[in-house]
From TrEMBL:
Described function: Involved in chemotaxis. Part of a chemotaxis signal transduction system that modulates chemotaxis in response to various stimuli. Catalyzes the demethylation of specific methylglutamate residues introduced into the chemoreceptors (methyl-accepting chemotaxis proteins or MCP) by CheR. Also mediates the irreversible deamidation of specific glutamine residues to glutamic acid.
UniProt PTM: Phosphorylated by CheA. Phosphorylation of the N-terminal regulatory domain activates the methylesterase activity.
Keyword terms, alphabetized: Chemotaxis, Cytoplasm, Hydrolase, Phosphoprotein
UniProt GO cellular component terms: cytoplasm
Enzyme class per UniProt: hydrolase
Stretches assigned to the CheB-type methylesterase domain: 170-363
Name of this chain's protein: Protein-glutamate methylesterase/protein-glutamine glutaminase
GO BP: any one term: chemotaxis
InterPro entries in the cross-refs: CheB-like (IPR008248), CheB_C (IPR035909), CheY-like_superfamily (IPR011006), Sig_transdc_resp-reg_Me-estase (IPR000673), Sig_transdc_resp-reg_receiver (IPR001789)
Source organism superkingdom: Bacteria
Single annotated GO MF: phosphorelay response regulator activity
Domain Response regulatory residues, every copy: 15-132
Biological source species: Noviherbaspirillum pedocola
Amino acid sequence: MNATLAGRPSAAKIRVLVVDDSALIRSVLKEIIGSQPDMEVVGVAPDPIVAREMIRKLNPDVLTLDVEMPKMDGLDFLEKLMRLRPMPVVMVSTLTERGSEITMRALELGAVDFVTKPKISISSGMQEYADTIADKIRAAARARIRRQAPAAAPTAAEAESRVLPTLKNPLTSSEKLIIIGASTGGTEAIKEFLMQMPSDCPGILIVQHMPEGFTRSFAQRLDNLCRISVTEAVHGERVLPGHAYLAPGHSHLLLARSGANYMTQLDQGPPVNRHRPSVDVLFRSAASHAGKNAVGVILTGMGKDGAAGMLEMREAGAWNVAQDEASCVVFGMPREAIAVGATHEVGPLKSLPGMVLEHLHRHGGRSLRV
């Protein structure tokens, strides 16, 4: 795949094309985006057919794209766009089960991120919504975009090289935990990481910045693809080997202890670093309750959520890795964690599962006590 990196002079505005079949939504998005000092709406389109011509003429930096539109389905348009003319795309999604499933597929096809449809009738939260859209467009404008090539079946040698060994002593794996945090670009990064986890791996807790209504679809999609079980976390369940627990979009996910067992804990406290769920909240709880039994993993994402918590994990004895810049969609979160000295190693996404499992091979017999 060919990689291109969106870039522009620092003084230039981010040029955005809005594509949505609703005239009202187009108007709202145009007003929100146009009010940002570093952005301008260069055009609006009611469907992908019109958008296709406008992309050729206007050459926008970022596209906002409705997931369900007439004349051409949003997914069909996105697939063609990312194959023929890759560019940063932020999907505008509905808060429905179908909308969340389509959004997960759009992220697989190469969309950088997504926002939900604005609730026009609720003006009190519009400023927060506007800030969210603006942040996601800024991240998309800086994102590393890769041309989507048709998937080719791996050769026998490639398939063999991707098979990772199971843990040498599964009985000790329950004493260990893998703690993962991600944001922009994280859905695909988490998928790639978890698909390489063996069925006897330690329990995994995950925070991916994602709104309520989408985390369940994401967990179900992962569960269908991985050898381990992946579920949306619920409050008070025991953390088991071979299982991954994804923070629901409405709550912080924390690690807790009940006797010798690790447990999940959900909390609907205020956002941390503007996020709920927050990576820092999960990482800090892992530092407190798992210490040296934890392995921290910070993946692609915008902002700095997770850096401070990962440093606390390292200070408590955890071993931490970060995704490298070349393989990140947005290098913000890993960069911040590296900058504060929270990580032990940095590597490309495809290598991180092996690095983590190798560490667990070497340190699988430690006591649960911290």
